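Researcher: Let's do a round of design. I'm pasting the structure tokens now; please hold your answer until I've finished.
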């Protein structure tokens, strides 16, 4: 391994996804570094690539990775890096969506409550009319 390839490998191993950073950007960076290493003649195994991705994750993904690894192990398979990345980005999207706070616009909240109240009131009124 040349000195530049070794430096690239060390930099790749040190990549970490920040707790609140964009996972897609970080994964793209890891893929770019894989390409650079490949161009320098360093070919990483599937296991190495998967390991690099897993080590780059913030602690919030520990249970996700544990579940994915356990499922693969139970089926006698290894998780290839592209499959891992696909599932990881799906998880990232779910976490990102669920962490977004609902609107704090009082007008929107009032409109939603009014719609719920009107819906409930009209069904109650219909019940009182015998119909």
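Researcher: That's everything. Go ahead.
Model: Designed sequence:
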């Amino acid at each position: 391994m040349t000195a530049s390839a070794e430096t690239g490998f060390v930099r790749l191993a040190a990549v970490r996804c920040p707790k609140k950073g964009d996972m897609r950007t970080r994964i793209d960076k890891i893929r770019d570094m894989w390409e650079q290493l490949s161009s320098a003649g360093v070919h990483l195994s599937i296991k190495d690539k998967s390991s690099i991705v897993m080590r780059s994750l913030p602690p919030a993904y520990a249970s996700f990775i544990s579940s994915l690894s356990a499922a693969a192990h139970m089926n006698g398979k290894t998780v290839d890096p592209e499959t891992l990345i696909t599932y990881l980005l799906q998880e990232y999207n779910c976490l990102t969506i669920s962490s977004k706070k609902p609107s704090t616009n009082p007008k929107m909240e009032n409109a939603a409550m009014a719609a719920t109240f009107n819906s409930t009131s009209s069904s109650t009124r219909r019940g009182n009319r015998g119909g």
